[in-house]
Design a protein that fits this description.
- This protein folds into two domains: about 120 residues, Diaminopimelate Epimerase, Chain A, domain 1, CATH 3.10.310; about 325 residues, TIM Barrel.
- Helix content is about 30%, strand content about 20%.
- Strands 8, 15, 16, 17, 18, 19, 20, 21 and 22 form a nine-stranded mixed beta sheet that branches.
- A hairpin with a 2-residue loop joins strand 24 and strand 25.
- Helix 10 crosses helix 11 and helix 13 crosses helix 16.
- The chain is globular and about 80 Å long.
- It binds zinc ion (ZN).
- The site of zinc ion (ZN) has 4 residues, from loops.
């Protein structure tokens, strides 16, 4: 064991004898139940051994105690991103062309041309992050211009939400995709007026190109370690990695054995691989890596009109065959029900991506049916009782658009909404175009959810959005973009308070990963994971939250990042 529960805790005030180190002269937001503020704390054996005033903590120091004066800076618990993609973040560091921030299709092409000039012809060029909603011409791109400028390299570049991607002609040729190719259910291959592929593939249709791309390049471990460095520098000591295969689980297990993990990762196995995994493996909960969860999808994303709605899209009411267009179900609700039953019986958490109001309702309904089947199904006399939803911390990932009558169901069922505040401030520009003003009342309904009595697990969905958690905290408390627009915030009644936002990125995210007893707040007998930042998060002007600089990041009392 790297740490022991026998930390030297004395007296009721939580004082320690001869701590390894004391940290003094700071404003410490402990994020304990009472949201207390301290000045100092002591660390012993990697755990918080005492928390209190400067005088109290200084009095504990012995001859061998290290004294670290934080110079009046602010301390927060290590932040936790409850929904990110570590390998995807690592890829940005190691080779995938970053197309975020581009303001036109021409600029996207330019960046790809630049990369092509440094890449052998025939080699794949992968990119991600373009967003036609931030271009002057907002229509989805067509491949012709890209194919003309980059004819010799297969190119595959994802839209910012990852739910649509553009291929050039060479890529479609290698993947043997043409107008007549059968498109998988839950996906769409966009066609131009002549019936030829435009190069844009939505949701499940992305596999038509994806399967032609050779694996290779950086190893899984390289990607995770590159992402880990980025997370630690941003103040994240925990990440819930929302979707991985058995190969990546093995990578994490090996990194854990080699003691190379410094970020605590709550892993979710891909839904399609969950049944086999559940049957063959007990839930695993190690010090830095857990595998007791899975990630399913019910629908796509709002930006690419793949989110599954109860009523048609405002800006695309009719589908290709003249039917009312309500988006896409990318998997059967019955599949989610089946995994929910299985998860409850075997002690696994289920997390389902749901964005549209229909998608969210279907997931909640499927969880309820799964619970019913688990508790009423045949069980041999010696089999353990299956768990219930009330004690299993099932989650909905994103929960972006909710029908008013579904908001209270999260608390009732004890299903945790895992939400990404920066998605709100990215999408608020166009969400009313998609769903109209009335339905938009149920979009990113943070305060309504919190008021109903359910915690929100905060995250970013990196690399879809930046992994910088201070951008998430800023978005949560303002519902404004970085130019402080719109004035007062978009649908400001749904803003979080600073305390709520900080809880969602610390203790509530820890709860969503079954780790709230070990991390998520600065309290005696918890692991000493914390960060030191350059400004007072609770009192600085709102806009300043976004520019917070992380001075150092500590895991179990050891500095793992210092600026
Ligand atoms: Zn995601």
């Amino acid at each position: 064991m790297r740490h022991t529960l026998l930390a030297l805790t004395l007296a009721a005030s939580g004082t320690a004898a001869q701590p390894d180190a004391i940290f003094v002269n700071a404003t410490v937001y402990t994020v304990d139940e009472a949201f207390s503020v301290a000045q100092a704390f002591a660390v012993e054996d990697g755990m918080f051994a005492a928390v209190g005033t400067d005088a109290e903590i200084r009095s504990l120091a012995g001859d061998s105690t290290r004294v670290i004066d934080l110079g009046g800076m602010t301390v927060l618990p290590g932040l936790i991103d409850a929904h990110g993609h570590m390998a995807g973040l690592g890829q940005l560091q190691l080779g995938v062309v970053d197309l975020s921030g581009t303001t036109s299709y021409e600029e996207v092409i330019e960046r790809v041309v630049e990369r092509a000039a440094q890449t052998e012809p025939g080699e794949w060029i992968l990119g991600r992050g373009w967003d036609n909603e931030s271009w002057e011409n907002k229509s989805l791109p067509e491949h012709a211009d890209l194919s003309e400028k980059v004819p010799d390299h297969p190119v595959w570049i994802s839209r910012v939400d990852g739910h649509a991607a553009l291929a050039n002609a060479r890529a479609m040729e290698i993947a043997e995709v043409s107008a007549g190719t059968a498109v998988p259910e839950g996906g769409e291959m966009l066609l131009d007026i002549e019936g030829n592929p435009t190069g844009v593939f939505v949701d499940n249709a992305e596999a038509l190109i994806g399967r032609a791309i050779p694996a290779g390049g950086a190893s899984g471990a390289d990607l995770i370690l590159a992402a880990q460095d980025m997370c630690l520098a941003a103040g994240l000591t925990g990440v819930h990695d929302a979707g991985m295969g058995p190969d990546m689980i093995e990578v994490y297990m090996q990194l854990e054995r080699d003691r190379k993990l410094a970020v605590r990762v709550h892993g979710m196995i891909h839904g399609r691989e969950a049944p086999k995994w559940f049957a063959e493996n007990e839930p695993y909960h190690g010090p830095f890596f857990t595998m007791r969860s899975c990630k399913l999808y019910i629908d796509g994303a709002m930006g690419s009109r793949g989110a599954w709605l109860l009523e048609p899209y405002e800006d695309r009411p009719v589908g290709p065959e003249g039917e009312p267009y309500v988006g896409l179900a990318v998997s059967e609700p019955g599949f989610i029900e089946e995994i929910a039953r299985d998860g409850l019986e075997r002690g696994y958490q289920v997390c389902a991506h749901a964005i549209g109001d229909r998608g969210n309702r279907e997931v909640l309904d499927a969880y309820v049916r799964g619970e019913h089947r688990a508790s009423n199904g045949f069980r041999s006399a010696d089999a353990p009782m299956p768990a219930t939803l009330a004690d299993s911390r099932f989650r909905v990932e994103h929960a972006q658009l909710l029908a008013p009558e579904d908001i209270g169901r999260f608390a009732e069922l004890n299903v945790i909404p895992s939400m990404q505040p920066t998605h709100c401030t990215s999408d608020m520009r166009w969400i009313e175009e998609r769903v109209g003003s009335v339905r938009a009342d149920g979009a990113y309904a943070w305060q309504s959810l919190l008021a109903s009595g359910v915690p929100i697990a905060g995250g970013s969905d990196f690399p879809v959005e930046s992994h910088n958690p201070f951008l998430g905290l800023y978005a949560a408390v303002t519902r404004q973009n970085l130019d402080e627009e719109p004035p007062g915030g978009w649908r400001p009644l749904e803003r979080m308070t600073r305390e709520q936002a900080l809880r969602s990125f610390t203790i509530d995210a820890a709860y969503a990963g079954f780790n709230e007893k070990s991390v998520g707040s600065i309290e005696v007998d918890k692991l000493a994971d914390f960060i030191v930042i350059d400004r007072d998060y609770m009192t600085c002007p709102p806009r300043a939250i976004a520019d917070t600089v992380v001075l150092s990041t500590w895991v179990e009392g050891t500095a793992v990042f210092e600026r």
